[in-house]
Amino acid sequence: MRHEVIMPALGMTQDSGLLLAWKKQVGEEVVVGDILMEVETDKSTMEVEAQHSGFLTILYAEEGTEVPVGEVIAIISATTEGTDETSPGSHSETTMESDSSITPQDVVTETDEEVPPKTPTKAQNNTPGKILASPKFRRLARERGLDFGLLVQSGYSQPYHVSDLKTLEAMSPAQTTGLEIYARAHINGSAFKEFEELLKVETGLPITVAMAAFAAGAYHQILDSNGITVRVDTLPNSTITYMVPNFVKLREIIPSEMGINPDLIVTDLTLTKLVNIKSGPTLVPTFSISNFGQRLEVLLVSPQSSMDQHQLVNCIEEFINRLELPLMHLL
User: Fold this and answer.
1) Alpha helices in the chain (DSSP H)
2) pLDDT 10s digits, 300-325
3) Are 160 and 185 members of one domain?
4) Same domain, 46 and 102
5) Domain total for the chain?
6) Helix orientation angle between 190-202 and 309-324, rounded to the nearest 10 degrees
7) How many helices (H) and strands (E) does the chain have?
8) Would residue 201 be called left, alpha or beta, if left means φ above 0 and alpha means ψ between -120 and 50 degrees?
9) Pick from 35, 75, 36: which is nearest to 55 by CA?
10) Under 8 Å CB-to-CB from 219, ≥6 apart: which residues?
11) What's the predicted TM-score (pTM) here?
12) Where a domain ends, among 155, 177, 199?
């Protein structure tokens, strides 16, 4: 009996996963429940368990490869016969039983703190242009203004974990930590205010949904991200977090669990007399919308580690274009 191992869907909006590492090698015996591979999604790193016992005989996907959900990436066989010691190749036409039963309950979320500090070595199998790192490492590095490309340039092995932050901090110039860049614009907000009333009457949706969609759309245009988590703070006392997939209708955007770290923040100050509010360093790109007489003032503040000045200017322009012509950007 031979069984197909597929790239599992570990999230509702996931269409692919990054294969970080194989935990079993070709020819090794596999038992149900063994950790078979480590996969990175948009928000977390998961360890996927084997659903069948046998021997790992073929690997179709290399470490560091982005693989569509449902694609066959390995074969588990009852014996070692047919073991392929070569690099991943084309799929066999033989009919096999698929591991399609893998669900999010069959994976283990990586805690990251439990990963022991490693002695960095020269990496031989890193995919050019793609840095393999746990989501928590990426988030903390961004928050501290650290460029984890320095680890790659110095030849430290991937994937990177929280335990590698001390090494990164030691080689990062102190003066780059916490630097911010910003851009401010004044726009005609009449169309957006009319759109807010239309949205409420026709759909019952709050304007925070549109703010999240417009911010995510602007960010996606500049940095080409797959699904963006946006937290909308409507002062004085409302906070909602949305997961915004690419090219989604407003009705399909629903609030996410509180406590999820956002990729973007939108601060709505239009119900107050405040123009801006800030406490501590900016950890992720943050849009602020406030009243400026009969117009709106839009401010975008970003850590320099998240985007450069050119990207910042383009991002705020994409955002204010959506505020000025909201209906056109929803067609």
Assistant:
1) 135-143, 149-153, 165-171, 190-202, 207-223, 309-324
2) 999 888 888 899 999 999 999 999 99
3) no
4) yes
5) 3
6) 60
7) 6, 16
8) alpha
9) 75
10) 225, 228, 263, 264, 285, 315
11) 0.49
12) 177
